[in-house]
Amino acid sequence: MTFDYKVADISLAEAGRHQIRLAEHEMPGLMSLREEFGASQPLKGARIAGSLHMTVQTAVLIETLTALGADVRWASCNIFSTQDEAAAAVVVGKGTVEDPQGVPVFAWKGETLEEYWWTAEQILTWPGAETNPELGPNMILDDGGDATMLVHKGAEFEALGAVPAAADDESEEGRVFLEVLRASLQKDPQKWTRVGSRLLGVTEETTTGVHRLYQLAEQGKLLFPAINVNDSVTKSKFDNKYGIRHSLPDGINRATDVLMGGKVAVVCGYGDVGKGAAEAFRGQGSRVIVTEIDPICALQAAMDGYQVATLESVLAEGHIFITTTGNKDVIMAEHMAGMRDKAIVGNIGHFDNEIDMAGLARIPGIKKVEIKPQVHEWVLDEGTDAEKSIIVLSEGRLLNLGNATGHPSFVMSNSFANQTIAQIELFTKAGQPEGEREYEKQVYVLPKILDEKVARLHLDALGAQLTELTKEQAAYLDIDAAGPYKPEHYRY
Ligand code: NAI
């Protein structure tokens, strides 16, 4: 069997396979879904275009999807987040380096923006689909919404008959994105309309991607149903919080090896990710300051014992500044210019627009020194008495995946069990004829009973013993002894 793929170095496959093997042991949710659904093959006929950080944990997800019958093509959703050995191992699969038999992966660490959008196009471009649309992708598994956006924007511009001359925000990213769409429209003027019409649905991993989906649905522009995986409790209250608590310090350590104890860490945003970030710094003995725009989250931070302040008021105080907001323009160039010498600045939100990298590069006389890949020192006022520098991690992209290897397997087993269940839900239920469909072109979350199932799958591995409700207790609480245990409005 031959297939197209592009990874950094296919010979890394063996190293990747060892890591995948160990990760499987730490991913009981995914492994038990393989056991439960391996024989019935609920994803047989699913052709999944996956856009999610190509890490070791994602390799276990991909191989779970194929074990359940799916055909898959995969790209990373960030230019720095691929673990090259994992990508190689997924391509090789059960084959050999000479005769790979796995999954077409298009991902490597350190892609250019042009390469990034090329890989995104590859996962949505299935062999034979140009002449036979039946062979194209019918599901997207997305993280951040770039694959979904490519299809939606492509179809929108095809309907208009042209791609705009410039991106709304005039960013480099936007320029490259439009270039890719212009080229594809020239080659195949109906490509994205065709791809969009064949898609049964998308399952979205993260807060930022979910935000984009709700916007599309509100505007009546969503082309297919979507499941918001992020807001499964066993995703956002675990991955976003406990995952970050692990992978944020991992990224800072691998990048700088700076001692966090005693330092002042400024965490911008106190949502799920910010809560994990603040707790990680506190665990290391840092003094943590939180910035927030939402009074509820600000009050939570204060009650959790953190100082809550504006960024402007603590610029000179902080040693480490981390953005976790999913918002744009949070740390601007003027902020960085006001920080102390060798302050560390990083982002762990999905996109790189939280930190004003373009503005930093425009500061007159500023010099960028590469300490090592994904760690840069920006020197201001060089040669003067005022000389100082700022250390920026992963060029403003999410540092836990740019400087380290992202969240650990166990927490990702929760997220990816939700992803797998969501893929099965949509693939098996979104294709019915109109009138009988359970999923319309809207955004859904998984039923609570499935959320509870994901949690249940992870208890044994931690030796956690669940108390069972008696019949009388269940009747008293007016719930089923088998769950769901909480009403929809419960917040955990
Ligand atoms: P969230 O919505 O729970 O939290 C974001 C918080 O930032 C909110 O409380 C909001 O009020 C606050 N905020 C917004 N603008 C702000 C500003 N200008 N200054 C201070 N605070 C501000 O979102 P969540 O789930 O915490 O996710 C945050 C980002 O992290 C998203 O982009 C998400 O996609 C991403 N993410 C990244 C992961 C990673 O591995 N790096 C893992 C999970 C999520």
TrEMBL record:
Needs which cofactor?
NAD(+)
**Swiss-Prot/TrEMBL keywords:** Cytoplasm, Hydrolase, NAD, One-carbon metabolism
So what does this thing catalyse? S-adenosyl-L-homocysteine + H2O = L-homocysteine + adenosine
**GO CC annotations on file:** cytosol
Q: Name one GO biological process term.
A: S-adenosylmethionine cycle
Q: Which residues bind substrate?
A: 55, 143, 205, 235, 239
Pfam families annotated for this entry?
A: AdoHcyase, AdoHcyase_NAD
Q: Which family does it belong to?
A: Belongs to the adenosylhomocysteinase family.
This protein is called Adenosylhomocysteinase
The species is Pseudarthrobacter chlorophenolicus (strain ATCC 700700 / DSM 12829 / CIP 107037 / JCM 12360 / KCTC 9906 / NCIMB 13794 / A6) (Arthrobacter chlorophenolicus)
